[in-house]
Amino acid sequence: MAQPAPEPVVDGWFTVDPPRLTGTRCTACGTVYFPPQTLTCRNPACDGGDLVTTPLSDRGRIWSYADARYRPPPPYVSGEDFEPYAVAAVELAAERIIVLGQVARGVSVEDLAVGMEAELIVEELDPGHLVWKWRPL
Fold first, then answer.
1. Residue 121 phi, psi (nearest 5)
2. What per-residue confidence (pLDDT) applies to 25?
3. b/e string for 19-34 if b means 16 or more Cβ within 10 A?
4. Taking 70 as the threshold, does the pLDDT of residue 27 lie above it?
5. The whole model's pTM is what?
6. Nearest 5°: CA angle at 79, between 17 and 35?
7. How far apart are CA 96 and CA 31, in angstroms?
8. C-beta neighbour count of 116 within 10 angstroms
9. Pairing of strands 85-92, 129-136
10. Which domain holds residue 97?
11. Domain count, the chain
12. Within 13 A of 101's CA, how many CA atoms are on the CB side?
């Protein structure tokens, strides 16, 4: 029997083909959010409430990064085959926001540097679940 196609871990936060994060933008002040907001603009200088879905940049610069060497505690699932991974906070210049995500499989902190350009990709987190990740360029 064929396995079902992998699905995004969070519906509506990113697209697979092409890989793009999905945010929201306030129509009153232009503030962009990721993850997407649903209720109202959180900008304290704005009383707008009309938020529209907007695709975000698929490239940015590494703002910070770290090693994730511990097995996540319950309720997170981390199976016996858990492998340490790197995470990166990437600044999307056009949107002026920073988005945290895992780094592509096979890339370690030794391969990263602040200011390095990175692109968004989609990889399987575990069988059946897709997640966005950052790949340094």
1. -135, 170
2. 96
3. bbbbbbbbeeeebbbb
4. yes
5. 0.88
6. 40
7. 9
8. 15
9. unpaired
10. 7-136
11. 1
12. 35
